[in-house]
Amino acid sequence: MKLAIIGGGAVGLLAAFYLGREHDVTVVTRTAQQRDLLRKNGVCLMKEGQEEGVRLVKAAAFFEKHEYLKHDLWVVALKQTMLPAFFKEWRHCAKLPDMLFVQNGIGHLEEAKKYFRASAILGGVITHGAMKVDGNVVLHRGQGALTVGALGSRSDLICRLLSEDSQFPVREADDLERLLKRKLLTNLVVNPLTALYGERNGELLKRESWRENAYQLFLEGAAALDLGRDEWEQVVRVMEATAGNESSMLQDIKRGKETEVDAITGYLLKQGAKNGVDMPLTAFVHRSIAGLERRGENG
Length: 299
Prior knowledge:
It is a single chain. The chain has 299 residues and is of the alpha/beta class. It has two domains: 2-173, Rossmann fold (3-Layer(aba) Sandwich); 178-297, Orthogonal Bundle (N-(1-d-carboxylethyl)-l-norvaline Dehydrogenase, domain 2). It contains eleven helices and twelve strands. The strands form two sheets. An eight-stranded mixed beta sheet has the order 5-2-1-6-7-8-11-12, with helices on both faces. The protein has a four-stranded mixed beta sheet with strand order 4-3-10-9, with helices on one face. The model has no long low-confidence stretch (mean pLDDT 93). Residues 177-292 form the Ketopantoate reductase C-terminal domain.
C-alpha cells in the first residue's frame, strides 16, 4: 500500500522505518528542513546506542498536499496537541484517504469520524518505546506491537496492514474500544506521575508511596472507564517492560512543550463527571501538570 505517515516525531519515524519494509511510505513533516533531511538520508533506526539500519523513504512537507493526498492510507502520528489544527486544515475536503490514528486518548476518534465522514477511521495502539534523536533518527527503546481496529464497520485496510514482522508486528484488535481504554488507563498512571516526579517509568514501582499513588490513580481511572481492578496487573506489566523509558509527558515537560494532559487526565475527568465518579487525585495531577506547562512557557 501507499502509506503517508503524517508527522515526523518519534512514533512517525519508527512506523516509517518498519512499515517501509512492506509498503511504499511517505513521511509528511511539519518543516521543509526535516523533509529534506529525510529525502537525503532516510530514516535511521538506533537500538541500545547503535545504528540498526537505514530505511530510504519518500518525504513531503505538510503544505505539499499533492504529494500524499492520493495515498491509500494516512497514518496520523501527530501528537494530540496538533490534532485540532489537523482537523481544521482538512475538514472541508470532500475526499480524503482512509486514516489510522495512533495517538494517546480516545475522544479524537469520534472527532475524526465527525469531520471525515467519507473516510474509514481506524484506531491504533503502539506499545513500542521510541525517542526521536534527530530529524531523521529514532531510538527504538522497547519492543512492542501496533494493534489496529476500525471505528465502525471493519475495513479491508486492516488485512493489508497486518504483519508478522517480529520487530514490528501489526495485529488486529478484537475490541478496539476496550484496547483504547486500557491504553488510556496506563497513560493515566504512568505519564503524569513520571512527569511530576521527574523519573523513568519503572521508578513508580520501587517506592512504596509512589506505587500507592499510582494504584489510587489507577482506581479512579478504572472506575471512570468502567474497567475492572484486575487491569492493574496489565498496568504493572507495562511499567516493568518500559522501566528504563521516559514517558512522553516527562519528555515534553523537560523540553518546555505542551503535553497531552487534556487528552489523558482531562478526558478522564470528563468521563468521571459523566459517570458520577469522584476523581480527586486525577484532578490534582491534572492541575499540577498544567502548572508545570505554564512554568515552562514562562521560561
